[in-house]
Design brief:
alpha+beta; two-stranded antiparallel sheet; 5 helices; membrane; GSDME
């Protein structure tokens, strides 16, 4: 239910598809700005890719070469206030005739529910400043080798 609600909110507020929905509240703590996310392609072309957050919180500065941490310029602002209201009116009427006696009963009810995620905030990174900070930094060869080994073993499993 939580995953469906977050997908619906993202569909409403992000038409471009740049945001990744979180499937559970446990994963929401792992989703932080500039955290490392792996993208797993699905077998069939019509299936959407699946995103996995690192098991431990792994930030971009943790995997790049150089001791200096990446400190991007972050601007935080209110993104959207998401409030949904739904309602329904129920009416009923029943009547009966018993000889000279006429009976009639009617009823009406109104149900309204309101759901709110509150005010959602967004964090934006100045990409020009970030790209300037990471220009001379690379992934360590060990990570590249393990990444390529993982892709090759995945291809072997699929074929």
């Amino acid at each position: 239910m939580f995953a469906k609600a977050t997908r619906n909110v993202l569909r409403d507020i992000d038409a471009g598809g740049d945001l990744i929905s979180v499937s559970s509240l446990n994963d929401s703590d792992k989703a932080q700005l500039l955290s490392v996310v792996s993208k797993k392609r699905r077998f069939w072309c019509w299936q959407k890719p699946k995103y996995h957050f690192a098991s431990l919180t792994c930030m971009l500065s943790d995997v790049l070469t150089d001791i200096k941490a990446v400190k991007p310029v972050v601007v935080e602002s209110e993104f959207v206030t998401y409030v949904g209201t739904s309602g329904d009116v129920i009416r009923g009427n029943i009547g009966a005739d018993f000889g000279n006696v006429h009976m009639n009963a009617a009823g009406m009810g109104y149900v309204e529910s309101q759901s709110s995620f509150g005010a959602l905030r967004k964090q934006e990174v100045d990409l020009q400043h970030l790209m300037k900070d990471v220009r001379e930094r690379f992934l360590p060869p060990v990570l590249i080798k393990s990444f390529l080994h993982g892709r090759n073993s995945e291809k072997d499993r699929n074929s």
